Amino acid sequence: MTDPIVCITNVKKIYGKKEVVKNISLSINQGEIFALLGHNGAGKSTLIKMLTGLIQKSSGQISINGIDVAPFQKNAKQQFSYLPEIMALYPHLTAKETLHFFAELQNIPEKNEDEVLEIVGLSDYKNQKVGDFSKGMTQRIGFAIALLPKSPLLILDEPTSGLDPFWAIQFKKVIKHLNEEGTTIVFASHILSEVEDLADRVGIMSDGELVALGNIQDLKRNAKDEVKIKVSFKGIQDVAELTNKLSYPIEVQKDSYILSCTYDEKLEALKALQSFENIKDIEIKEVTLEDIYHEILTKRYAMNA
Ligand SMILES: Nc1ncnc2c1ncn2[C@@H]1O[C@H](COP(=O)(O)OP(=O)(O)OP(=O)(O)O)[C@@H](O)[C@H]1O
């Protein structure tokens, strides 16, 4: 078991009379990729802004590497690098000047500037003013700024928003690569396939609360009907024979049957199917993060209705 790099304990944020983050506690381990999911206004960015010390929490504790995080705490700021949801840049500076500005602020060697420009594919645009950049290019320069210090903890708020598919894939590759080299990643996202691809663990927020937390595989194991096996047969298959030999719920479709089982029953179900010599095709669909997200939030809305 690795030590947590981030500890969030009973954290709240209240704006006026509205509690937008409600008593959240969670730890993020060294070396993991942790994703925060949730609908618009769920409180993800607010939690991330408190984690980065950009805004003051109303109560609770946050520490990174054992150092308390709060606005204007230089020690805490040195522990991580942050890509905000919206980048505020000086529009009259070029890409190279922008990076140099941020590098100088943090005493970062100049060689890192060219390296990160290369990573985000902006080397050919280094002399262009960032004010003239497209949305995606602005996001890429923001990512380059976050990569400059080579921090052991990267906090990214919707890192691929505004990117075209090519650059979204490139960003994911960079994130995976950095993680393989030991960087801990915390990111918020709306893109469930991206989260499923990248994250070891997810936290799902709804109306300021953390309504689910866990390893994606465990969340899948807890979901109902984790695995659906679609089977089609050559010729006509007797339904009674099928239900006799298979002890799983079976749904009859036009030219196929859908078996529902748990993740742990999958192999057993496939073995049982082997006894049918007239199988034409088998398709397996495992529950996705999207299914889990939908199930959790639907249950929650039904509870609050
Ligand atoms: N400065 C502020 N003053 C008042 N309310 C705020 C402020 N910042 C955020 N909120 C409110 O807090 C709630 C959570 O907002 P937040 O931006 O954290 O959500 P989010 O999950 O990041 O949403 P999105 O996915 O749309 O970015 C929203 O109801 C928002 O209106």
From TrEMBL:
> Which key words tag this protein in UniProt?
ATP-binding, Nucleotide-binding, Transport
Q: Does the keyword Transcription apply?
A: no
Q: Which SMART domains match?
A: AAA
For the keyword ATP-binding, the answer is yes
Question: Which GO-annotated molecular functions does the record name?
Answer: ATP binding; ATP hydrolysis activity
Domain ABC transporter span(s) in chain numbering: 6-232
Q: Which InterPro entries match?
A: AAA+_ATPase (IPR003593), ABC_transporter-like_ATP-bd (IPR003439), P-loop_NTPase (IPR027417)
The cross-references to PROSITE patterns, in alphabetical order and at most eight, read: ABC_TRANSPORTER_2 (PS50893)
- PANTHER family on file: ABC TRANSPORTER, ATP-BINDING PROTEIN
Q: Which family does it belong to?
A: Belongs to the ABC transporter superfamily.
Q: What is this protein called?
A: Copper ABC transporter ATPase
- The protein's organism comes out as Schinkia azotoformans LMG 9581
